């Protein structure tokens, strides 16, 4: 899928599209609100993300992450965490405007069954 055709298929505003970069196997989105989180309880400092890089090739391991969580929003955040290699607890800090863009970016790469929610 070429960069132009992929980005052209997405329902994004010009401002949202300006924050998106197609890197080939990944899509990068610059966050409106940086995410600050603790990587682990053993890691003393906070980490801050200003962008997320999401793999385009959604695999079973990414989809399984959704099964570990209840609710549509929780499952969506679990998928974003898995696709970006970010700890799930960091996704709790993802701004809703950023989440909307990220989910729009991921949708074309999901199996049709997951997109529509039909069995």
Write the layout of secondary structure elements.
Blueprint: H1 3-8, H2 14-18, E1 20-22, E2 26-38, E3 46-55, H3 60-67, H4 72-84, H5 96-106, H6 112-116
Organism: Pseudomonas segetis
Pfam families: Phage_TAC_7
InterPro entries: Phage_tail_E/E (IPR019289)
Task: Explain what the structure shows.
The chain is α+β, with helices and mostly antiparallel strands. It has helices spanning 3-8, 14-18, 60-67, 72-84, 96-106, 112-116, and strands spanning 20-22, 26-38, 46-55. The chain has one domain (3-110). Helices cover 40% and strands 22% of the residues. A hairpin with a 3-residue loop joins strand 1 and strand 2 (26-38). The protein is globular and about 45 Å long. InterPro entries: Phage_tail_E/E. It comes from Pseudomonas segetis. This is Phage tail assembly chaperone protein, E, or 41 or 14.
